[in-house]
Structure prediction request, 277 residues.
Amino acid sequence: MARADEKNSSKYWFDRQTPGLSLLCADFTTHEYPAHIHDALMVAVTESGGSEIQASGVADEAHSAALLVVNPGEPHSSRMKGSHRWRYRSFYLERSGIDDVLRGLGIAALPRFSRTMLKDKDLLSGFLGLHHALDGDQADELRRRELLVGTFGQLATRYGDSGAKVPLGPRDRVLLESVIEVMRDRHAEHVTLADLATAADLTQYQLIGLFRKGVGMTPHAYLTQIRLGSARGLLGRATPIAEAAAQSGFYDQAALTRHFRRCYGITPRQFSRAALT
Prediction:
């Protein structure tokens, strides 16, 4: 298992037989995740200990009797407030992986999950078994596929719903998307809050409020997520870490490593090795 630092350890890898699926096996004693987002559906099984979870502003507790589920693009954070250790296994199913699983389920769209913590022993056992099966290619192709489609299918059938959050009004949605587009276009540059507010013809205070309401994060935090996504793409194409940092808008390699480890629990080097293995 690759060491992240003296007190924490983690192993991260991509499942080569399932497009868009990556996995993490973590053993943390000190780690704290700041508010961040994944483009992927995240599902995690706690093996021991736990952590305090905040998802879209709602506090809960991750523990071994509940499955943690976070929707794509949903802001979430965690801290080990009352636990001295948190051992967990997680899945990150990105868009291509979601589409692949949806075809296996015979449904058109991924439902939204309105609850973050699901107390379901059968589902916990299923996801834990799936994670072990995908760790080391121990299961044959039929068995792996059966577990993958079966567990995600049970999750969608039992707990998926169409109860998405109340959306922004049309004007606010257009404004938010226009600012996000500016962020994506200029993420490698030095972008100020004033620049972004001007692009939407808003005051800086109004812009902060728009982001908090629309995505549950501040503009700075959201821009950092865009930069991290850019860095992940570059690292997956064997770009040197320092170069990936510069091209993604981070001050230097140390800044990228700090944000990467805080948000993902692994270093850019661990991610790059997993992507290129």
Notes: The chain has ten helices and twelve strands. The first strand starts at residue 9 and ends at 14. Confidence is low (pLDDT under 50) at residues 1-5. Residues 170-276 form a domain with the Arc Repressor Mutant, subunit A fold (CATH 1.10.10.60).
